[in-house]
Amino acid sequence: MKTSFPDLPDLLSLRALSEAIDTAVSAAHAGAAILQAYSHRRGDLVIDHKAQNDLVSQADREAEEAIISVLRERTPDFGIVAEETGGRPEGKATWCIDPLDGTTNYLHGIPHYAVSIALVAHDDVSSDGQENPIVAVVYDPNREELFTAVQGIGAWLNGRRISVSRSPSLDQSVLATGFPFRDFSFEAQYMPMLHDAIHSTRGIRRIGAAALDLAWTACGRFDGYWEMGLAPWDVAAGTLLVREAGGLADDMYGREPWARSGNIVAGNKAVARSLQALVAPHLDHASPASGPGACNQELP
């Protein structure tokens, strides 16, 4: 059913945001249904290599098609940027889609992956005049956990409001991260960060799905998270989840309104600030790590 959204100034109204979150939830469930159907016959999947350690299968592609079908039917005036098919920003806002975050886990039978969908408002719509995610859905079909967030209203897990942890410092924190696995150009920046974090926290976890790392930070399972070289669809929804749960989720280099270039530091406010201070000395500001595009840029 096509949804008629208000004019630009009203995109942030409660009604418009409610309609958008309902649309994103429906799309996420449609994509996840395909992923779960294929998960029982992974040996039949045709797997392509986009680049080193960058895999895609027909499960990714068909899930993305199902998601886009729902979004186009119900929000035809919005742009779409998706991992597998690309796209461009259009209209009042743009959907930023990862149909399968954690592809390597999925293909190896590790039940830790998710569908991630965010609606990113364009500069002339956002209340602060900057592009930012305004609606977020991260759906973990294995645990049947649905994380949702709406700008200025809050974040929820299966309908219950969530908040970031209360850990006051890094030495009382468990952090999530992601190792360089596809682009190793920022390895020299990342490895000293990992060394320092290992020696100043209760532990580091790397479980291979950025959207879930951020969702778990939003609900307090992790106290903080950092990673480099991601794509905008990896972090768009998770950024809003953390922010609406009372935390910080920012571009590591401090150049973007959100980490659309793929370099992110997140956590409760105390931990995120301490984590930013930990990573800052190791950043090469002349050559920042960058992911493959942004949800405000046209992709092939």
Please characterize this protein's 3D structure.
The chain is α+β, with helices and mostly antiparallel strands and 300 residues long. The chain folds into 2 domains: 11-161, Fructose-1,6-Bisphosphatase, subunit A, domain 1 (Fructose-1,6-Bisphosphatase, Chain A, domain 1), CATH 3.30.540; 170-282, 3-Layer(aba) Sandwich (D-Maltodextrin-Binding Protein, domain 2). It contains 7 helices and 15 strands. An 8-stranded mixed sheet has the order 4-3-5-6-7-8-9-10, sandwiched between helices. Strands 12-11-13-15-14 form a 5-stranded mixed sheet, with helices on both faces. Strand 9 (154-157) and strand 10 form a beta hairpin. Helix 1 packs antiparallel against helix 2. The model is unreliable at 3-9 and 51-55 (pLDDT under 50).
What's the CATH first level of the largest domain? Answer: Alpha Beta
Strand content: 15-25%
Please report the distance between the alpha carbons of the first and last residues: 28 Å
Count of structural domains: 2
Tell me, briefly, the overall form: globular
CATH fold name of the largest domain, please? Answer: Fructose-1,6-Bisphosphatase, Chain A, domain 1
CATH superfamily label of the largest domain: Fructose-1,6-Bisphosphatase, subunit A, domain 1
Proportion of residues in helical segments? 25-40%
Label the structural class. alpha+beta
Roughly what is the average pLDDT, rounded to an integer?
88
User: What is the makeup of the main sheet?
Assistant: 8 strands, mixed
The number of helical elements comes to: 7
* Rg over C-alpha atoms, rounded to the nearest angstrom: 18 Å
Strand order of the largest sheet: 4-3-5-6-7-8-9-10
CATH architecture of the largest domain, by name, is: 2-Layer Sandwich
